[in-house]
Amino acid sequence: MFLRLAFSVSLLLSAGLNTAGAESQTVNVAPGNNGTEPLFVPAHFDASNGTSVLIYFPNVGPYHSFTQSSFDKPCTPLQDSENVTIGFDSGLTSATEWELTITNATIPIYFFSKGPNQCGQGMVGAINAPQNGTGSYDEFYAAAVKLNGTAITVPDTTPILTGVGAAATGPPRGLGERSDLQFSVEGFMPLEGYVTSF
Ligand SMILES: *[C@@H]1O[C@H](CO)[C@@H](O)[C@H](O)[C@H]1NC(C)=O
Ligand SMILES: *[C@@H]1O[C@H](CO)[C@@H](O)[C@H](O)[C@H]1NC(C)=O
Ligand SMILES: *[C@@H]1O[C@H](CO)[C@@H](O)[C@H](O)[C@H]1NC(C)=O
Ligand SMILES: *[C@@H]1O[C@H](CO)[C@@H](O)[C@H](O)[C@H]1NC(C)=O
Ligand SMILES: *[C@@H]1O[C@H](CO)[C@@H](O)[C@H](O)[C@H]1NC(C)=O
Ligand SMILES: *[C@@H]1O[C@H](CO)[C@@H](O)[C@H](O)[C@H]1NC(C)=O
User: Fold this and answer.
1) Pick from 172, 156, 71, 173: which is nearest to 114 by CA?
2) pLDDT tens for each residue of 15-47
3) pTM of the full structure
4) What is the fold of 1-198?
């Protein structure tokens, strides 16, 4: 169950959306819900090469992951043609933060959380996806929620640091003193219409 606390959502959307010629940028992502369904906030954004995507996993509530998938199989870890997993994966985690860096902004990145039933409930997202039509976040989300209740349970793994289009330099790290982030991280702004779940 989700505890709904008034947490200042980690969101620096402007950093992610307007990146022309920019230097080091950070986009903050956190699990949330819209009152009933779990989701990522923000669920989709653009991020140029070199952008840091910093994912905060809260210290209470269900475990989540940030796992790369594909447009065709929203709730399955990204695999190559030999069915070898090639996507990044934080692993199921809590009270941590994980930093990914965009390594190729021309590749759309699709991701989901592999906590039980979370993907089929819409806990998915996309980075650098087309704005509309095939490949868009909207179509990706629609494909994920079609799997609601039937998506396979993805086994947990140790973190996989290198994905396609993004990579991490290390596994998720503890929030330390900030594990009690209830949750006023400097620079974060509340996202209208959403509450985050912890
Ligand atoms: C939350 O999202 C679900 C799935 O899109 C939708 O059915 C539901 O109405 C939303 N709830 C709120 C309060 O927005
Ligand atoms: C990959 O997995 C799919 C679905 O399980 C299967 O149909 C296909 O034969 C597999 N391909 C290889 C190369 O193992
Ligand atoms: C980045 O991705 C694009 C699109 O898939 C590809 O054409 C290009 O070769 C990639 N760049 C590198 C350095 O891998
Ligand atoms: C991002 O970097 C990759 C790898 O170096 C390169 O192939 C691609 O063209 C770059 N994309 C943009 C939009 O700069
Ligand atoms: C997923 O299924 C559950 C259980 O039937 C339901 O409560 C929920 O609204 C569904 N979510 C979506 C996004 O369809
Ligand atoms: C789809 O997105 C493109 C930009 O990616 C835009 O030019 C076009 O107007 C959009 N079409 C619709 C129907 O929104």
Assistant:
1) 156
2) 334 344 445 688 989 887 777 888 898 899 999
3) 0.83
4) Immunoglobulin-like (2.60.40)
